[in-house]
Specification:
Bound molecules: 2,5-anhydro-1,6-di-O-phosphono-D-glucitol, manganese (II) ion
Strand content: 15-25%
CATH class of the largest domain: Alpha Beta
CATH superfamily of the largest domain: Fructose-1,6-Bisphosphatase, subunit A, domain 1
Radius of gyration: 20 Å
Shape: globular
Oligomer: single chain
Number of domains: 2
CATH topology of the largest domain: Fructose-1,6-Bisphosphatase, Chain A, domain 1
Length: 334
Amino acid sequence: MKKFITLYRHIIEQERKYPEATGQLSDLLADIALACKIISLEVNRAGLIDILGFTGEENVHGEKVKKLDEFAHETLIRAMEVSGHLCAIASEESEDFIPVNEKYMGNRPMSKYVVHFDPLDGSSNIDANISIGTIFSIYKRISKSGPGTLEDCLQKGSNQVAAGYVIYGSSTILVYSTGEGVHGFTLDPSVGEFLLFYENIKIPKKSKTFSINEGNYHKWDEGLRKYIDSLKAENKSEGKPYSARYVGSLVADFHRNLLYGGIFIYPADTKNPNGKLRLLYEANPLAFICEQAGGRATDGRRRILDIEPENLHQRTPLFIGSEDDVREAESYLS
Ligand code: AHG
Ligand code: MN
Ligand code: MN
């Protein structure tokens, strides 16, 4: 019979492998899980209470902010800043990073972590009941003490000590990695626990699925157009044509490709010369998960995790998923 393993037990077991660990990282992951349970409830209730619709304000990217984006952002901060383990928080929904108030650090020898999140990913899909999610990533601070600094927040993705995402879909699922493989948990809403459903997820090396917004075809460079054309051409020996799957929620598209194999692309185009997705809140955490699962994540040329960020909301093109497919895509780019 399958054993019940809760998220918290799993995290603690992982931590036991490191005798020097202080438990702070486990606490932070538990705080994220708590926040995401609350967000999950609110997402499920969204049709019932008057939370859908625009607030009428724009975020730093010039996009309309929905009430659920704000709710998710605030919930994560409320659940996380009190832990005493954080010195700074950066969120897609906030222009500047949020240095954690020293009152929460008072009785701690050192608040040594920084967290980044995309509180609600795929928010344009909320009203249509399509899966949306939360993406998070955790780093160790660089500065020595006091509230966190911009330098603490602008680290390359290879410095991540943990990353993951939660999907609010037909069920609520949390996937995380601390650099020891990728593990997935399903929320049992009746007991309020995330239970292990998939330990050590590995992405297939080669796939039969591509995910890209093809409406932008004429804005892409020629190499990318040729690559996508090649996926659609009849070529039985290479397993082509591929299937197209794209819902417009990065977490949902990525999660499906992680389990079944696939390549997700959000490229640079004539409208968005740096692509659309954000390095710190979207690309880095998913690249960390993808590599831990045996996949590949680049901007078409460089490994995502090696990019030195210059600002908090920097964008990057993203090619992510099954290794052979990402390499093939790269070979077409000029
Ligand atoms: P967010 O809701 O956090 O702003 O992210 C939306 C992103 C991502 O989830 C998705 O992959 C992409 O936008 C879709 O963009 P297009 O509509 O341009 O395809
Ligand atoms: Mn997003
Ligand atoms: Mn978002």
